[in-house]
Design brief:
With 127 residues, the chain is mostly helical. 62% of the residues lie in helices and 0% in strands. The chain has 2 domains: 54 residues, no CATH class; 63 residues. The longest helix has 18 residues. The model has no long low-confidence stretch (mean pLDDT 81).
């Protein structure tokens, strides 16, 4: 089942159409051994923030997918060029709910102190 989902994910990446110079041509980075190779740090960044939520939509359970989408939204708000101070209080509540929902979905072995640091990123970005 996991291998089938991995193949489906790679097929989506391979046939993904993006604007010119948006992300290095992802379809050329899928190699025959079923891995993505030759991506630069910006490519991974764009993939995590914009491509993955789109690609994983039909490959995961709804609860898992929504947890990852919410985490993605939190990171997009934190790393925006301009942060609206009025929305930071709401973002603090959202990040706690998001981390809690992720704790329910994923196994405890996945979590370490780094997962908890997302909450502190939101607090530190407040000014």
């Amino acid at each position: 089942m996991i291998e089938e989902k991995k193949r489906t994910f790679l097929q989506i990446i391979k046939h993904l159409k993006t604007p010119t110079h948006y992300v290095i041509a992802l379809h050329t980075r899928v190699v025959r051994d079923g891995k993505l190779r030759g991506l630069k740090s910006h490519d991974y960044h764009a993939m995590m923030q914009q491509v993955l939520p789109f690609c994983l939509h039909n490959l995961m359970q709804e609860e898992t997918h929504m947890s990852l989408i919410n985490l993605n939204k939190v990171f997009n708000k934190i790393f925006a060029k301009v942060i609206d101070p009025n929305t930071m209080q709401v973002l603090r509540k959202e990040v706690v709910k998001t981390i809690s929902s992720i704790n329910k979905v994923f196994p405890p072995t996945m979590f370490d102190v780094m997962t908890h640091l997302v909450i502190h990123l939101v607090e530190e970005s407040d000014f």
